[in-house]
From TrEMBL:
CDD domains per UniProt: SANT
Occurrences of domain SANT (ranges): 1-56
Keyword Cell cycle on entry: no
Protein name, per record: MYB transcription factor
Ranges where the Myb-like domain occurs: 1-47
Organism per entry: Acorus calamus (Sweet flag)
Limits of the HTH myb-type domain: 1-51
PROSITE patterns, per database record: HTH_MYB (PS51294), MYB_LIKE (PS50090), SANT (PS51293)
C-alpha cells in the first residue's frame, strides 16, 4: 500500500525528532497508521532514493521529494526562583535500606551437615 503525503511528512518529523533506527518510536508516536517494520522499510527506500538522486533533476515527482518540515523550536529554559536554596531532588532508596538490612557485610550461609554421614 502506498504511503500518503501526510504519512511521509509525519515520518520525516519523527525521523528528525528521534533519529535513524528509531522505527518503533516513529511508528508509535508519529506514523500511527504504520507498523515499525513498515516504517523501517519506508526509511530504507527513502535513504536509497536520496543517495541515488543526489544532485539529479527529475522530470516526475515522488513522495520522497517532499522537503523536511521545519525543525521544532526548543522550549525556553526555566529559571530557578531560589538559586541559593534550591529544592532538593527526591531520591528513590532501595527497599532494603528501609528495613535495616545493610549491604556491607553479607550473612554467610553455612551448609547443614549431618553428623551421621561419613566421608568416602
Amino acid at each position: 500500500m502506498k504511503w500518503t503525503k501526510d504519512e511521509h511528512m509525519r515520518f520525516l518529523e519523527g525521523l528528525q525528532a528521534l533519529g535513524r533506527g528509531e522505527w518503533a518510536g516513529i511508528a508509535r508516536d508519529y506514523v500511527v497508521t504504520r507498523k515499525a517494520t513498515q516504517v523501517a522499510s519506508h526509511a530504507q527506500k527513502y535513504f536509497l532514493y536520496q543517495l541515488k538522486n543526489a544532485g539529479k533533476q527529475r522530470r516526475g515527482s515522488s513522495i520522497f521529494d517532499l522537503p523536511l518540515p521545519p525543525a521544532p523550536q526548543p522550549a525556553p529554559q526555566r529559571q530557578m526562583n531560589n538559586v541559593e536554596n534550591p529544592t532538593p531532588l527526591r531520591v528513590r532508596i532501595p527497599f532494603w535500606m528501609h528495613i535495616g538490612v545493610t549491604n556491607s557485610a553479607p550473612n554467610p550461609i553455612r551448609p547443614r551437615v549431618n553428623p551421621n554421614m561419613q566421608r568416602q
